[in-house]
């Protein structure tokens, strides 16, 4: 049996550089190899470490499951560590990815819109200014049950943030 | 902020054009000064590449947001790179005046 094909991973923002080079080798070498960081690994690093998102949230933004995100992230950290410890050059390329920003839909005027370059939910509809907007990517039937509280809509599919002194997994 | 709206005609009473690349006119509305500029679309009759050509026209006017009914697949990645927001409004009955009123909410 053939294995299940790898899912396409969503990358919100392309990297600003195509790689990084080490300098100042202790033993006067000029290079010691390369590490190829996939774009999906780059994205996991950006979401988890730079934007400090939780892995569940990052996984949703990338369109993969939480365990998959953790694997991508672990591999990214191993590669970065290898590059730093062994003085290797980092090249960011490849990966099964597509670039996309999240799509939202407004319940007031019925329009759809995206938010290029932004990771977080916009406050209001760009057309009519209504606050009744939902994330179109995560638009299962559940969302329509609780339309009366627009502030809760976005949080439905995002893991409960971890708070000190509070047990996880319970909602108010 | 400048907003482009695709229009079927050159007046405020005309309807929203449901196509982006091959729309008849672009209405460019400036939310800060309330200026309205109407441009005929020179790419309307192009056989191929009307979308990217229209993106170029729109981008040269520093538009930050585009309102239309439908966008082709070539346009999406271009607009993402230019950080222009896409707003899809599937309502062919809406006139340009209605949309400008909505924008002034």
Strand and helix layout:
The complex is a heterodimer of chains A (172) and B (105).
Chain A: E1 9-11, E2 19-20, E3 34-37, H1 39-50, H2 55-62, H3 66-86, E4 89-92, E5 97-99, E6 103-106, E7 112-114, E8 133-135, H4 142-145, H5 150-153
Parallel strand pairs in A: 1-5, 3-4
Antiparallel strand pairs in A: 2-4, 6-7, 6-8
Helix pairs in contact in A: 1-2, 1-3, 2-3
Chain B: E1 2-7, E2 25-30, E3 36-40, H1 50-59, E4 63-68, H2 73-82, E5 85-88, H3 96-103
Parallel strand pairs in B: 1-4, 4-5
Antiparallel strand pairs in B: 1-2, 2-3
Mean pLDDT of chain A: 77
Annotated CATH topology of chain B: Nucleotidyltransferase, domain 5
Which band does the percent of strand residues of chain A land in? 15-25%
| Average pLDDT of chain B | 86
Strand residue percentage of chain B: 25-35%
What separation lies between the terminal Cα atoms of chain A?
Answer: 46 Å
Q: Terminal Cα separation of chain B, in Å?
A: 15 Å
Uncertain spans of chain A: 139-158
Structural class of chain B: alpha/beta
Shape of chain B: globular
CATH H-level superfamily of chain B:
Dinitrogenase iron-molybdenum cofactor biosynthesis domain
What's the arrangement of strands in the largest beta sheet of chain B?
3-2-1-4-5
Radius of gyration of chain B: 12 Å
């Amino acid at each position: 049996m053939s294995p299940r094909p790898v899912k396409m991973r969503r990358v919100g923002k392309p990297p600003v550089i195509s790689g990084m080079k080490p300098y100042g080798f202790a033993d006067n070498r000029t290079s010691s190899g390369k590490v190829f960081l996939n774009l999906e690994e780059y994205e996991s690093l950006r979401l988890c470490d730079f934007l400090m998102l939780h892995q569940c949230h990052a996984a949703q933004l990338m369109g993969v499951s939480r365990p998959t995100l953790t694997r991508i992230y672990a591999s990214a950290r191993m590669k970065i560590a290898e590059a730093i410890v062994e003085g290797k050059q980092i090249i960011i390329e490849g990966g099964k990815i597509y670039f996309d920003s999240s799509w939202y839909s407004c319940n007031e005027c019925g329009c759809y819109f995206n938010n290029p370059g932004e990771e977080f939910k916009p406050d209001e509809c760009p057309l009519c200014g209504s606050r009744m907007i939902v994330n179109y990517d995560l638009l299962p039937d559940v969302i329509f049950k609780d339309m009366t509280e627009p502030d809760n809509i976005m949080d439905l599919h995002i893991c409960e943030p971890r708070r000190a002194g509070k047990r996880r997994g319970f909602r108010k | 902020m400048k907003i482009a709206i695709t229009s079927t005609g050159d007046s405020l009473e005309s309807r929203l054009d449901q196509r982006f690349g091959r729309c008849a006119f672009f209405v460019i509305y400036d939310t800060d000064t309330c200026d309205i500029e109407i441009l005929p679309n020179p790419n309307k009759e192009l056989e191929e590449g009307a979308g990217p050509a229209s993106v170029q026209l729109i981008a040269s006017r520093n538009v930050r947001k585009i309102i239309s009914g439908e966008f082709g697949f070539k346009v999406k990645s271009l607009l993402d790179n230019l950080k222009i927001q896409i707003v899809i409004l599937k309502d062919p009955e809406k006139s340009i005046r209605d949309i400008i009123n909505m924008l002034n909410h």
